[in-house]
Design a protein that fits this description.
Blueprint: H1 6-13, E1 17-21, H2 30-39, E2 43-47, E3 77-81, H3 87-96, E4 101-104, H4 111-119, E5 123-127, H5 140-152
Parallel strand pairs: 1-2, 1-3, 3-4, 4-5
Helix pairs in contact: 3-4
Length: 171
């Protein structure tokens, strides 16, 4: 039996987490929101652009607009899904929300944001890959993308923790 990948363990065992996007930069994580909703994963979405309801495949779901609005039990993991120039701000918001770990999704892991997370003594879990890949159950479209990631060999690679390394986000 193949041991569980560290990223599988992280996302599957998360008791709750904060998904941070920014609709004002067209970076609302609608597909991730939908995937987590479909499988019943406990998460809280926070939009830096002020969106208060989800959009995309799951419309009308609750979206928070500030860390102060989040419930106390939001979890210690933040998944960041913003443009690189806004990633450091998202890290600050995650820290305010009480998150101690951060996962930078596709195109988000700007070196300044990663450095800021480390300054705040937050654990950087991953820089670049989508956490939906590592869910046990996922929507069919996400499952198909995961097959592609597995075929390229990227899936089994250890977590990317170097913000200056070559990108390997979509394959």
């Amino acid at each position: 039996m193949i041991p569980m990948h560290p990223l599988e363990k992280t996302i599957r065992e998360a008791e709750g987490f904060v998904l941070i996007g920014d609709s004002s930069e067209d970076r609302f994580p609608g597909y991730s929101y939908n995937a987590f909703t479909e499988i019943g994963k406990r998460f809280y979405c926070l939009d830096l652009g002020g969106l208060s309801e989800s959009r995309g495949p799951t419309t009308g779901g609750k979206v928070y607009t500030s860390a102060e609005e989040l419930p106390d039990d939001c979890g210690d993991l933040a998944i960041i899904w913003v443009k690189p120039k806004s990633a450091a701000r998202a890290v600050e918001v995650a820290n305010t929300a009480g998150c101690q770990r951060v996962w930078f999704s596709f195109g988000t892991g700007h070196r300044d944001a990663v450095a800021r997370a480390r300054e705040l003594e937050m654990e950087v879990v991953e820089i670049g890959r989508c956490p939906v890949y590592y869910l046990a159950d996922k929507p069919k479209a996400c499952a198909a993308h995961t097959v592609l990631v597995k075929a390229t060999g990227s899936y089994r690679r250890q977590p990317q923790l170097d913000s200056n390394a070559k990108r390997r986000e979509l394959w």
